[in-house]
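Structure (tokenized):
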């Protein structure tokens, strides 16, 4: 009798061990993220997470300053939005919107809210207008006018610049948390001065008030002039660092990695009227940089 009891005990333990093994195997499959069996016993693929960055957004809004309005690219002291790097329809530029959406798509699903003379403090208002269109991508280029003031002392302080940019992104995020943002760096203003000062016509137009902090007394090379331009240049670099830092905190924001700042604009890429703003060819180069950044693979 005792022997039979021991046999029954061994059989019970064996059954329990088998059940535990099966249970452990099922749990192990779930923990490893395996595919789930359906009612028929076959397995269906687990859904893949949606990538944070869509390389083919379906609509584009642009905000910023005169560069994004194509200022001085077609005629003197005049906006020319049709050649805008962001949303223009010019075949010579092949704008970001056209590259992403096609020419017909860009005509109906891209909008330009940039304004000549705008500074970073104007960006939250521009962003609020862009939000109404519910774009999938917002392209930003702002900051040059914060450095291009009547004097070095009048340049926008770095922390104010930061606060205004943060406010613009907050305006976007409160309404459209999934919209992507492309941020172009502020161009190298000192590079533009060094190229444009070779034109007598350009220097005459500069006297009308184009970026006096950098372009004023364009041929002066005394200590004060050199220090003034270096101060403006440092402020531009500080602005670009702010753009990078603030954008890095937003998972759906990309900067150009400083490509616009580093681009060596030559005379062919500058307006033939003011030798400072981008020409049609310069606008095309900005579009190329933007498109490369937006369509780069990412998380």
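Design, position by position:
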């Amino acid at each position: 009798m005792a022997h039979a009891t021991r046999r029954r005990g061994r059989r019970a333990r064996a059954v329990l061990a088998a059940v535990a093994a099966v249970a452990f195997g099922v749990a192990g499959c779930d923990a490893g993220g395996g595919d789930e069996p359906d009612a028929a016993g076959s397995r269906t693929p687990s859904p893949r997470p949606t990538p944070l960055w869509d390389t083919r957004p379906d609509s584009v809004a642009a905000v910023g300053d005169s560069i994004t309005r194509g200022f001085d690219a077609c005629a003197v002291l005049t906006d020319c939005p049709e050649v805008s790097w962001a949303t223009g329809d010019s075949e010579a530029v092949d704008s970001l919107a056209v590259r992403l959406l096609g020419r017909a798509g860009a005509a109906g699903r891209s909008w330009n809210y940039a304004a000549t003379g705008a500074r970073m403090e104007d960006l939250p208002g521009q962003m609020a207008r862009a939000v109404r269109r519910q774009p999938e991508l917002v392209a930003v280029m702002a900051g040059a006018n914060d450095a291009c003031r009547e004097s070095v002392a009048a340049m926008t302080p770095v922390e104010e610049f930061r606060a205004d940019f943060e406010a613009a992104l907050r305006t976007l995020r409160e309404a459209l948390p999934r919209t992507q943002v492309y941020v172009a760096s502020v161009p190298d203003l000192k590079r533009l001065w060094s190229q444009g000062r070779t034109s007598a016509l350009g220097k005459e137009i500069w006297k009308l008030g184009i970026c006096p902090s950098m372009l004023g007394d364009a041929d002066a090379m005394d200590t004060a002039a050199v220090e003034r331009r270096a101060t403006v240049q440092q402020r531009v670099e500080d602005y670009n660092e702010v753009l990078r830092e603030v954008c890095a905190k937003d998972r759906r924001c990309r900067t150009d990695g400083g490509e616009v700042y580093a681009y060596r604009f030559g005379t062919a890429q500058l307006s033939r009227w003011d030798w400072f703003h981008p020409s049609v060819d310069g606008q095309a180069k900005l579009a190329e940089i933007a498109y490369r950044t937006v369509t780069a693979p990412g998380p």
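Reviewer-requested clarification: The mean pLDDT is 87. The first helix runs from residue 2 to 31.
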